[in-house]
Recover the amino acids of this structure.
């Protein structure tokens, strides 16, 4: 069964450093998403991306965050200057269509620890 | 606005017993509702979903859920728990036409031998 692949599975970074989280969505999917889960809290929507642009973003997704699809396969989330409160599990997802009707496929997540 | 609440952050049942994980939603419009499961070190896997039509939805691994509009609920059940069901379960919802999912806080299910 097709999978969404995320790398690395765990990343530790110092406060103020830039990090890039990488995702390889399912090949025929057109819509891409990032969610995060701070330990002990709910899974939260960050951003959705379609046709090389952001289609929706949450209040969390401020100027410190950016997303990119640099080639035909990767989808990345960049945090420019990490803060302690950015420590969380980050999930990438993709879907065939823009509606949750069809369901997402999630990756296994990247645990980001900011120290 | 859409919100999803899961009652009980931890649920523990004996092997062979009924599993009941509770989820309530609030929405001004009929929602789409989902249950996801997360096994250790794995991603979120779709168990089942309700969009339209039959209110009793069957999913993978013997799980099912019933959409009850009058109770604004979408509880997840399984008649007989297996040890392999131990995982974290997430209820999620979205409005029709929306892209994003709104998640509940998750329920960790433990199965006792």
């Amino acid at each position: 069964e097709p999978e969404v692949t995320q790398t690395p599975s765990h990343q530790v970074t110092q406060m103020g450093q830039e990090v890039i989280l990488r995702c390889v969505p399912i090949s025929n999917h057109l819509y891409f998403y990032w969610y995060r889960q701070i330990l002990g809290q709910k899974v939260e929507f960050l951003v959705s991306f379609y046709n090389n642009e952001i289609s929706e973003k949450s209040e969390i997704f401020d100027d410190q965050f950016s997303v990119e699809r640099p080639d035909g396969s990767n989808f990345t989330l960049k945090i420019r200057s990490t803060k302690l409160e950015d420590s969380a599990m980050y999930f990438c997802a993709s879907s065939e269509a823009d509606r949750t009707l069809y369901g997402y496929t999630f990756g296994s997540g990247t645990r980001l620890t900011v120290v | 606005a859409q919100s999803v609440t899961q009652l009980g952050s931890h649920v523990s049942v004996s092997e062979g017993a009924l599993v009941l994980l509770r989820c309530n939603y609030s929405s001004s419009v009929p929602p789409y509702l989902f249950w996801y499961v997360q096994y250790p070190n794995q991603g979120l896997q779709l168990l089942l979903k309700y969009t339209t039509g039959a209110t009793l939805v069957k999913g993978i691994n013997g799980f099912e859920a019933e959409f009850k509009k009058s109770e604004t609920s979408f509880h997840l059940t399984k008649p007989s728990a297996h040890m392999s069901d131990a995982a974290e379960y997430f209820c999620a919802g979205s409005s029709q036409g929306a892209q994003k999912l709104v998640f509940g806080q998750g329920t960790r299910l433990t199965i006792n031998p």
Remarks:
- Chain A has a mean pLDDT of 92.
- The two ends of chain A are 36 Å apart (CA to CA).
- The interface with chain B takes residues 4, 6, 9, 31, 33, 35, 41-45, 48, 55-56, 58, 91, 93, 98-101, 103-109 of chain A (CB under 8 Å).
- The first strand of chain A starts at residue 5 and ends at 7.
